[in-house]
Amino acid sequence: MPDRSSHRAEPVHTHPDAVRIETALAALADPVRIQLVRELAGSAAWTHSCGSFRVPVGKAALSHHFAVLRAAGLVEQRDQGPKRLNRLRREEFDTRFPGLLHLVLREEA
């Protein structure tokens, strides 16, 4: 029997069409998650690994934040070797909630 202890479970993704507005707003209410979304918006899809973000939280908290973003339909993740790569589901999310990401991604006043 192969050793599965080194394998991570595939992340569960929620399509934006299945997300309620309350879930989306709650996901975007946290400053760390907003920073993650902004960094993803400023980079090409699948180029940011989880450990490459400049956020002031540990690995466990970062995993939690990504789980919230996946559940809100904002982020998709895939494993590539030892890294978990990310992409912002901007097009799909914009179709579901037109204008919401635009407001979040605006520069701070």
TrEMBL record:
Record domain HTH arsR-type: where: 13-108
Organism: Streptomyces glebosus
Coiled-coil ranges from the UniProt annotation: none
InterPro entries with a match to the protein in the record: ArsR-like_HTH, HTH_ArsR_DNA-bd_dom, HTH_MetalResp_TranReg, WH-like_DNA-bd_sf, WH_DNA-bd_sf
PANTHER family registered for this protein in UniProt: TRANSCRIPTIONAL REGULATOR, ARSR FAMILY, TRANSCRIPTIONAL REGULATORY PROTEIN
Name of the protein: Transcriptional regulator
Residue ranges crossing the lipid bilayer per the database entry: none
An example Gene Ontology molecular-function term: DNA-binding transcription factor activity
Classification via PROSITE patterns: HTH_ARSR_2 (PS50987)
This protein's UniProt keywords: DNA-binding, Transcription, Transcription regulation
